[in-house]
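--- STAGE predict ---
source: upstream dedup step, 1 unique chain passed
mode: sequence only
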Amino acid sequence: MLLPGNPSAEGGLDMNRKIAAAAAVAALAGLAACDVSFNVGGNDGEAAKSEQAAAPKQFTNSRDNARSDALRQSYVDFTFAYPGNWTETPQPTDGTAQNYVRVAAPMIHGYTPYAFHVGFASGSGDAEADRASMAAFTQDLARSFGEGLEGYRIVSVGPEKVGQYDSFAWRFTATGPAENGEPAAQIFGRGDIVLPPGWTRGVTIVSLATDRAQTVTRAEEVGESGPLKDIFDSLRLSGGERGR
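--- STAGE serialize ---
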């Protein structure tokens, strides 16, 4: 199901709307969700130096980050490293959170060049059944995800890799509107469902890049190089096995 979000002033204005994607995995055994946003606006200032080296930061998930019933019920431990000049977006505290975490690079010319969101995923714990259902499910999620996104186009749907983990994913492009005197942005993205075989809980990851990143020019490149690949390679999951 796709739920429209509300404009947010956190770090600027969202790209007209925030997209919340919720989906069933393994015959509706659970939910996967990510509340996805691109910030528009703000002061570039030092943000134009977003690719400069900085000491990496480490994110470690905790139950304090599970700020909704769905996140608590499908909680899984994970860690990843991300660039030191990126920032973590504050999550809602009113029980509506869809993500455990969102991190994003500083804005360049009105748009964040990169953003990385981690939500939840649940399965049956039956590896074969989960694998069989994920292909059709991801096709449906890819179609519904683009509702309300200008110029949304699905580029591919199929098996992928997020670092050491197998995933089922879709890649897409869209257009971000011109805001605050800045030019429109081309958006490149991918969504990955990571549910290790036999696990009942995993993660849904949505990774986004705009043409402000300059190094990303096609959806096929998202997560294949640069900071998003580094985040993928650093990702580690634990605690999602059946019975835990």
